[in-house]
Amino acid sequence: MKNSLLKGLxxxxxxxxxxxxxxxxxxxxxxxxxxxxxxxTILVKGTTNGVLTDxxxxxxxxxxxxNAVLIFSYIGLKTQELSVAGISTLNLILxxxxxxxxxxxxxxxxxxxxxxxxxxxxxxxxxxxxQIPVANLQNALVGKAAGVQITQINxxxxxxxxxxxxxxxxxxxxxxxxxxxxxxxxxxxNESTGSxxxxxxxSLNPNDIESIQILKDASSAAIxxxxxxxxxxxxxTKQGKSGKTKISLNTSAGWSEATNKMSWLNxxxxxxxxxxxxxxxxxxxxxxxxxxxxxxxQQGNGKNWRINEVDTDWQDLALVKGSVxxxxxxxxxxxxxxxFFISGGYNNTQGIIRGNSMERYSxxxxxxxxxxxxxxxxxxxxxxxxxxxxxxxxxxxATPLQAVAQSPLSPAYLDDGVTPNNQSTIYYxxxxxxxxxxxxxxxxxxxxxxxxxxxxxxxLTFKTELGYDNNNQTEEYFSGxxxxxxxxNGYADANAVQSDKxxxxxxxxxxxxxxxxxxxxFVGGMSFEExxxxxxxxxGTGFPSDALQTIESASEIIAGSSSRTKYNFxxxxxxxxxxxxxxxxxxxxxxxxGSSRFxxxxxxxxxxxxxxxxxxxxxxxxxxxxxxxxxxxxxxxxVTGNAGIGxxxxxGLFEGSSYxxxxxxxxxxxxxxxxxxxxxxxxxxGIDFGILNSRVSGEIDYYVKKTNDxxxxxxxxxxxxxxxxxxxxxxxxxxxxxxxxxxTNIKTTNFNWKTSLNLSTLDNKVTALPGGDIxxxxxxxxxxxxxxxxxxxxxxxxxxxxxxALFYRNTANPDGSLDKxxxxxxxxxxxxxxxxxxxTFMTGMTNTVSFRNFDFSFTFQGEWGxxxxxxxxxxxxxxxRYEDNQTxxxxxxxxxxxxxxxxxQARMYSxxxxxxxxxxxxxxxFVRLRNLxxxxxxxxxxxxKLSVDRVRLYLxxxxxxxxxxxxxxxxxxSFDNNGDSNIQKGIAFYSAPPAKTxxxxxxxxx
Length: 1006
Description:
Elements: H1 2-21, E1 24-32, E2 35-36, E3 41-44, E4 50-52, E5 58-64, E6 69-74, E7 77-83, E8 89-93, E9 104-106, E10 111-113, E11 121-125, H2 126-130, E12 148-152, E13 161-165, E14 178-181, E15 184-185, E16 209-215, H3 218-221, E17 232-237, E18 243-258, H4 267-282, H5 295-300, H6 314-318, E19 322-334, E20 338-350, E21 357-370, E22 375-389, H7 431-436, E23 437-457, E24 460-479, E25 491-514, E26 518-541, E27 556-580, E28 584-595, E29 604-615, H8 620-623, E30 628-642, E31 653-659, E32 662-669, E33 678-691, E34 696-708, E35 711-715, E36 724-728, E37 731-747, E38 751-761, E39 763-768, E40 774-776, E41 779-781, E42 789-793, E43 795-798, E44 805-808, E45 822-823, E46 831-835, E47 841-851, E48 854-864, E49 867-870, H9 873-876, E50 921-923, E51 926-937, H10 940-943, E52 950-964, E53 987-988, E54 995-1005
Parallel strand pairs: 1-8, 14-17, 49-53
Antiparallel strand pairs: 1-2, 1-5, 3-4, 3-6, 6-7, 9-10, 11-16, 12-13, 14-15, 16-17, 18-19, 18-54, 19-20, 20-21, 21-22, 22-23, 23-24, 24-25, 25-26, 26-27, 27-28, 28-29, 29-30, 30-33, 31-32, 33-34, 34-37, 35-36, 37-38, 37-39, 38-47, 40-41, 41-42, 42-46, 43-44, 44-45, 47-48, 48-51, 49-50, 51-52, ...
């Protein structure tokens, strides 16, 4: 009995002591040098008992033993252990860990430390973006990411921008990446009424951006499934932080000019060339050009060309001095409950092309509020108004750049010096449109994204997001009675487009650490998007006065139309991430996508991906290395899709029409119910490294992307009654290497110098095309060749004996080789593949230097391997085939037997080498000083008296220097009349160069 009582007493005492030991509760806050740390991990050592800090860095952990040790950890910071004996409240500041990669990246429906990343993601911070004074965010990214090519089509302020991530993965479908801002997929459709595109993202203010992540491989992009083939660009805007309210002001102003001007003949050279050409064609005795009242007199419009009384530089009239103003402010701050960020911006860009300008007003408001320890809500909003003064497309005489075709003998104005001369010019004088017409575009864009996040358990959260994107664009064009519309007494049209996108995301996130060594995270949810578009168009002629420029003043309505369309996506997705012992990494994801755009039998697609990584530097044999602090190998494979086609491409369509003034219905599209997703399989293997305490770090990657079931507008025989049918045919492959190297070259108390270098290669090949070659203009799609390769006759120079243009025959010999003999008969020469519009090697290098209060940075960008065909070359360098003014290469023309030159004899109105050939095809290899910035921050001892935190003066430049052998305006400027899905690529046609801009600015932080 006594033994039983004793045993019971011992059990009771043991339970009591155990209860007392584990009854302690510890609370507090975890911070770093910048403030509270949300999401830091607190774990009781030797147990699975752990919690995460909330958005304010606070935590409470229960059932902690009186002698327990807590482990505090956060990505990029040193893990600390702390005994809690006798402690119930503590505030801990975690220190930076130089052995860690501290960067945390947005990865789509979540975040992840770069150290544990198994994907290939390029990250660009706000510091790299805000220092570059450009009107659109894409141009701020040029040269910053390996494997990413960004090109503005030409120098127009609103001009379209092409971003190609790891090559070209489609023929007829979209080649643009998916843009996502704060979780909301953006509308990225060109809504221009003309053939020249407008950049759909021109309304976004780059100064509002905190960071941009570019998802390049399938493992990162597959979470966006059907639209991940061309890569995903995740844009995160700036958020407020609790603490002192901060006010930041930035104001800058600068001037611009064309990066390059071409050399054209002056009056004396022009008259000499054409007089000689006339003599070669009609004999020296025929003076029809030079005789009184002849062509030269007509062009001179009363001016004496014989004494150079007029020598008009039409290029200087078209390319003018531009200017730029950019003014922004932001207010941010908050407390433990609520943080906010508010900004406003104004940009005024006067383009380098006469009559082209842009004015943008923008507002952003981001708000996050902590309702309780479990519930948090937020709202991000953005409003912008953009006004654009447009000019004609490259292929219209009303566009300024085509003025270079005018004769220098023709005065630009009449004798009053005000009225444009359109009486004696060869072509329509573009000044007529500037003085007697208008073309304006107004874009009003609204972005809204709200969220609600509820913490169900310490490890489990639910988040719902509701996003809305509205893009309203109105375009009004007027051509007065003194313009090319004189015959109709004026012409005007108006176009209004409204695009809406609704996005709903609901997903759960479960994250937990087990036994210190096992980290797991699961994300699962659904997404729904609906996009709609409506358009109204009307045109009229006959205006009583040029002062009345809207359609309501037209005497006759000559055209009108309206349309509505809609499509949607329904998706389910999941992702699992595992980390074992902080060195073995696994990730898998899957997305099940449905789209209304595809046939009923293939409406849904499955897009899986998996990746793995091994942090070798965490192994015992490297862990204590004094040289290598990071060595990680990773690999991934996944499937992504492309849905960038028409909304009803799988359906048989009819449209209403009129037949003999009776209503009718006509078939306009064949049905294809088997139309399915274009899918890309991508493999990536990479190495991440950091040595010498991360003073040298980088990445090496090799990837292979193979796109199958290409969405192609396949041509059909004319006898079928249809021109084309959208089908899944063919495949193509992109593969290449990427290399990134970041170095801290010098780091002292007063002097720091860092360099970031990226290199990438691209090998693009068409691997299958069941229907055979597809030829469009000067380009071809052929198996075994780069997509849209140039397919033209090969130019062989000039016959020294007679000045004839020569071409290589390139006909097949019996042994399969090509006949390289020459002929002056163009019809005897065969077309051959002569180059590619896409670079095979790209690089970018950024240097950042700071010395005391000075900062200095610059970026070089380079591309090699691509070519450009000058479609205007037959007019501009045509040996007097047309009356257009000529480039100065004509001074090297053939004139006498024995002359060795590449410019044939000048022959008036006669064809001699102006046919499509490699004569007008050039390599566009270049290196460009993309941007440069020099700043000085005033000493704090000077500004503290003014209650100012920081004052910085800076000077920046964009496109300051370009090194190239390309003879055209610019190696990146191309014809803006080509649609993105068009096979024709790499064509220039009076395409304006980009602007070289120098800006002086001031940053003030209060």
